[in-house]
Amino acid sequence: MSTELELTFRQDADLTEVMRLRVQSLQQRGQKRQDGERLLRPNEAVYRLDFSKQSLQFSHWAVRLAQAGQLTVTATSQLWTPDLTHLMTRQLLEPAGVFWRSPGDAGDAPVQFYEADAHEFGERIAEQAKVRKAMYFLFGFAEGWEKKGICILCNNV
């Protein structure tokens, strides 16, 4: 028998700040990023997902949004060790999860997303939980998003 488990993304403010300082440092010194390096954009933040259970099966996304806007969630591979290396584009997993609410949607309307991509994205996260205790994500916020209320629902198997 499986039980549903809610996993909540938590912003990693320290890691986000370190990545912003990297961008600022390069700009101040007039240097370019390393070949293949992925720099943090102004509308992005680093989030962490801790896995309390290792044996999970993806169920569905539970994304809450108070108003119109868009969120893009990009996962990083287990090969990225943020305390040791810069983030490289090859360490980003595809597909990304894209969630949005259009201007005109009713307040209680569900958040929209590309179903096949979001499902595959959720399944990849559940697969990563088998070998990792935590995983990092880049959250790209467009207008309207509050940086809270984003979680994934999985079945504990």
Automatic annotation (TrEMBL):
Cleavable signal peptide: none
GO biological process: sensory perception of smell; signal transduction
Gene3D superfamilies tied to this protein: Olfactory marker (2.60.120.390)
SUPFAM superfamilies (alphabetical): Olfactory marker protein
InterPro entries: Olfactory_marker (IPR009103), Olfactory_marker_sf (IPR036727)
Pfam families: Olfactory_mark
Family annotation (PANTHER family): OLFACTORY MARKER PROTEIN
Protein name per UniProt: Olfactory marker protein b
Organism encoding this protein: Scophthalmus maximus (Turbot)
